[in-house]
């Protein structure tokens, strides 16, 4: 092989270099960016974000030393198009026209057809030394083609040319349901943008349908458009589809700081494990989770509260009311972080990204996380059937980061059985702690039990607990009712007159201290 | 103006090369196979022939051998432009350079400039 031929091989490999798009997580989906010199179809209905996506990529490319030729085949003027983009944070008027050059190919197309358009693009691309070519409005080119074959031929000639000059190409076309685009067979990759309604909510998605020459995360990914441009949220379960085994061997116990509960857990939850706090509304899941974070902080372990319902001041106030006043101290010190998700329309994957990114940013060991609650994610799910796979992937990722996680989730207020909103949860969490009410002789009792604890012994006894001024107090095994977990409590024969009131309930003249009564009064 | 003959059955590549070389000041003639190229030699009198290997009617190797035997154009500068791996190119063609498809613009221009030098294109 001659040296020149060796150079050829080297350059051919260089031809597989990537063009980073600068669109958050698009390069993650394509495992590194668009292939240099390749061509991509960007399809989507009007308003789906094709032009924004193309410009976001264009401005990023220019910022990193590239040159862009933007060819419009539309009747809309460049000035009007740019006016619509001026509010975007990535927009930079200074690079126009030197580095981002606009030409209209419509007149050439009208007078000379596809051949004339091809020649115009060839000359302009070379003249401006374009490394990125964007052709916006390819439907016009298609309409001027006599046949699909001649249109494909035009595309093939265009692709061959741009490949030689090492110019990556985006072909933007409007797309309507069921429409077939001839370019989809010719291009190296296809990105379809969509905009649809899920109930009252507008859902934007990017579908990666084809990506030649590289592995990629094909399929639907939700996206958002803001003044910062497009942000893509790859499906969490696809992002972490090849989980690795956890490398952390020195696992420790993570107590709640509630003596009887910690005894039942043989010292606490195992670090790096995932636990579901399952219970009816008001049973004390949030307080139990806060106990967990607070105990961690007392031991010097950082914590994150990732919640949807209680604002940070209200959460602190609630904690202070039941003897957890030092929670604020640890929040102020930054050892415990409250990440409150305001009641907006969320995207399930972006919530997971937010949580994981924050964990990565903090770079701390033995982190405790309390997600309050799973229902917050569930309400953000456009495709509810994704939930089990989503949570399985998220949980595994948290495990990999050595995070000890609590999820809270709600059951019905009163039911004859354990009806979890997500039965599959048992498969992806190591531990389940069940909180519930028991109605007995017109009294409400709170019960706590450990339903599952993987990789550890545990006490499966059902215990009564109360929310007191000193936090949660867990009592001895509850013995006055049977079959409590089915909610069908029956009194034991002659013992009917000896039923004790719930913990925290008034007894005699002694001033009650337990939170249950205090709560009732308020 | 120098003339480059592009012998390739893949018209999109031939057209792309033609467009690029015309911009560089060359006259470019496209032939779809070896037989067509041999027939055109006398009429076009090229300064360089860029020859694909895998072509119908007469392949690139046969075309090159036929050109080398040609009484008038036997010394015509040649360049192979093909997707074949350089290692499978027969030794008898060692003296002829290979531009491996897909190729980069600078390689094309560099090879052509070496084999058929012309003045740099004037820019306006």
UniProtKB/TrEMBL annotation, chain A:
Presence of the UniProt keyword Phosphoprotein in the record: yes
UniProt entry tagged with the keyword Repeat: yes
One Pfam family from the record: ATPase
Xref: InterPro entries: AAA+_ATPase, Circadian_clock_KaiC-rel, KaiC, KaiC-like_dom, KaiC_dom, P-loop_NTPase
KaiC domain residues: 17-246, 252-488
GO function terms (MF aspect): ATP binding; hydrolase activity; protein serine/threonine kinase activity
Enzyme superclass (EC): transferase
Protein name, as recorded: non-specific serine/threonine protein kinase
TrEMBL record, chain B:
One BP annotation, GO: phosphorelay signal transduction system
Coiled-coil spans in chain: none
Organism the protein comes from: Pyxidicoccus fallax
Pfam families in the record: Response_reg
SMART domains per record: REC
Keywords on record: Phosphoprotein
UniProt keyword Zinc-finger, yes or no: no
DNA repair among keywords: no
Domain Response regulatory: from-to ranges: 3-116
Residues bearing PTM 4-aspartylphosphate: 52
Protein name per Swiss-Prot or TrEMBL: Response regulator
Origin: domain of life: Bacteria
């Amino acid at each position: 092989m001659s040296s020149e031929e060796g150079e050829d091989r080297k350059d051919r490999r260089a031809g597989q270099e990537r063009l980073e798009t600068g669109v958050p997580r698009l390069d993650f989906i394509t495992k590194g960016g668009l292939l240099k010199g390749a061509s991509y179809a960007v399809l989507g209905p009007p308003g789906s974000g094709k032009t924004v996506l193309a410009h976001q990529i264009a401005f990023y490319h220019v910022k990193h030393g590239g040159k862009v030729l933007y060819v419009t085949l539309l009747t809309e003027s460049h000035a009007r198009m740019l006016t619509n983009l001026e509010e975007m944070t990535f927009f930079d008027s200074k690079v126009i026209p030197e580095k981002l050059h606009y030409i209209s190919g419509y007149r050439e197309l009208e007078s000379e057809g596809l051949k004339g358009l091809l020649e115009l693009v060839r000359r302009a691309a070379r003249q401006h030394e374009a490394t990125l070519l964007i052709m916006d409005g390819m439907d016009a080119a298609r309409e001027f083609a006599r046949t699909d074959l001649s249109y494909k031929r035009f595309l093939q000639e265009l692709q061959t040319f741009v490949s030689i000059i090492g110019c990556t190409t985006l072909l933007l076309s409007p797309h309507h349901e069921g429409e077939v685009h001839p370019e989809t067979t010719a291009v190296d990759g296809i990105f379809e943008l969509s905009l649809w309604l899920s109930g009252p909510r507008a859902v934007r998605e990017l579908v990666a349908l084809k990506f030649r020459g590289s592995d990629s995360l094909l399929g639907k990914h939700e996206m958002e458009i803001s003044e910062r441009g497009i942000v893509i949220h790859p499906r969490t379960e696809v992002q972490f589809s090849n989980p690795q085994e956890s490398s952390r061997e020195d696992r420790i116990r993570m107590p709640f700081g509630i003596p009887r509960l910690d005894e039942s857990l043989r010292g606490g939850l195992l670090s790096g494990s995932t636990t579901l706090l399952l219970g009816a509304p008001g049973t004390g899941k949030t307080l139990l989770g806060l106990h967990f974070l607070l105990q961690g902080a007392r031991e010097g372990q950082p914590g994150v509260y990732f919640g949807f319902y209680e604002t940070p001041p209200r959460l602190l106030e609630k904690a202070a009311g039941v003897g957890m006043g030092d929670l604020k101290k640890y929040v102020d010190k930054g050892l415990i972080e409250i990440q409150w998700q305001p009641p907006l329309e969320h995207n399930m994957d972006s919530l997971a990204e937010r949580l994981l990114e924050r964990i990565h940013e903090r770079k701390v060991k033995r982190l405790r996380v309390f997600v309050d609650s799973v229902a917050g994610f569930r309400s953000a799910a456009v495709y509810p059937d994704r939930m089990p796979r989503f949570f399985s992937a998220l949980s595994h990722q948290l495990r990999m980061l050595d995070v000890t996680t609590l999820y809270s989730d709600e059951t019905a207020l009163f039911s004859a059985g354990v009806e979890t909103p997500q039965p599959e949860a048992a498969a992806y969490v190591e531990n389940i702690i069940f909180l519930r009410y028991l109605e007995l002789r017109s009294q409400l009792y709170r019960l706590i039990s450990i339903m599952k604890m993987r990789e550890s012994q545990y006490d499966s006894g059902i215990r009564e607990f109360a929310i007191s001024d000193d936090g949660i107090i867990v009592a001895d095994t509850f013995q006055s009712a049977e079959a409590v977990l089915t909610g069908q409590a029956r009194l034991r024969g002659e013992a009917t007159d000896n039923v004790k009131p719930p913990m925290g309930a008034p007894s005699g003249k002694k001033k009650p201290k337990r939170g249950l009564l205090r709560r009732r009064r308020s | 103006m120098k003339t480059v003959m592009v012998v390739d059955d893949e018209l999109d590549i031939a057209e792309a090369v033609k467009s690029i070389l015309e911009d560089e000041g060359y006259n470019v003639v496209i032939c779809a196979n070896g037989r067509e190229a041999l027939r055109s030699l006398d009429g076009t009198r090229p300064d360089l022939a860029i020859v694909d290997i895998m072509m119908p009617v007469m392949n690139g190797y046969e075309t090159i051998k036929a050109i080398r035997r040609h009484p008038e154009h036997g010394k015509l500068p040649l360049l192979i432009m093909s997707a074949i791996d350089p290692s499978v190119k027969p030794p008898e063609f060692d003296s002829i350079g290979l531009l491996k498809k897909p190729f980069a613009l600078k390689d094309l221009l560099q090879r052509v400039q070496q084999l058929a030098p012309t003045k740099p294109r004037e820019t306006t």
